[in-house]
Amino acid sequence: MWMLDFIPDAYLHLAIITIICTGGGLYLLGLLMNFWPPAYPYREPVRITATVLVVAGIYFLGGYGVDMEWRAKAEQLQAKIDQASAQSESANAKIQTKIITQTKIIHDKQIVVRKEIQTVEKQIDAECKLDPAVPKILNDAAKNPMANPIGTVSVGVAK
Amino acid sequence: MKKLLLICILITLAGCASNKSLPGVMAFPNVPDNLMVPCPDLTTVDESTTKLSDVLTTVSKNYETYYDCKVQVDNWIEWYNTHKSIVDSVK
Fold first, then answer.
1. pTM reported for the whole predicted model
2. What residues of chain B lie within 8 A of the CB of A124, using their CB?
3. How far is residue A25's CA from residue B67's CA, in Å, rounded to a whole number?
4. Residue-wise pLDDT tens digits, B42-76
5. Which residue from A59, A106, B32, B38 could staple onto B67, CB 3.0 to 4.6 Å apart?
6. How far apart are CA A136 and CA A157, in angstroms?
7. Domain ranges of chain B
8. What is the C-alpha separation between B43 and A110, in angstroms, rounded?
9. B29 at the A interface (CB within 8 A)?
């Protein structure tokens, strides 16, 4: 059946109509043979052939109609998919731009915060001396618990 | 005759092998590259430091990391919701 894809639709339709018309023509011929005695022996084969052609032609015509309907639906669906793909690309571009903008805002804010820290660095370091347990606790909190799920925080506070 | 039969079989089999794409199948939507970046681990502070400013710097870096990840997660949610409605509209 895949070979039928190579035949243009119009030719296929024409071939089916030709089969039906040939069948119809042969049937009429079979009827006319009733009026001409020498053709009597050929009446039945002609009628049988005509019936086979008409039945086959109608079968093909139905199949062709269903196929055309299916193709039309497939085209509609493909158009929807193309539209959805375009929408998807557009949404992705928007999200990408949004991420870049938001990330820039975050980084810019951090630059300001670090500058603030640098400004008051000497002052806060002079007024506050950290216990050695502080960085350890902070690091334990910062470490990924999934990397070492059974790890526990164990720090000794210096006295 | 055998050769002719073999050619006929081969042509028929080639029909089975022909890759006719099914219409109506939407490909999985692409994901923006910057959403596919995994969140980094948090920065740790030098354990020998006694300076509060070092701790403060590390904490602020980690806040930055958190907000970077928040942006990614929020946008993943948006990506999912947007594309779900797009894909649903095709059905």
1. 0.69
2. 52-53, 56
3. 82
4. 999 999 998 999 999 999 999 999 999 999 999 99
5. A106
6. 10
7. 58-91
8. 14
9. yes
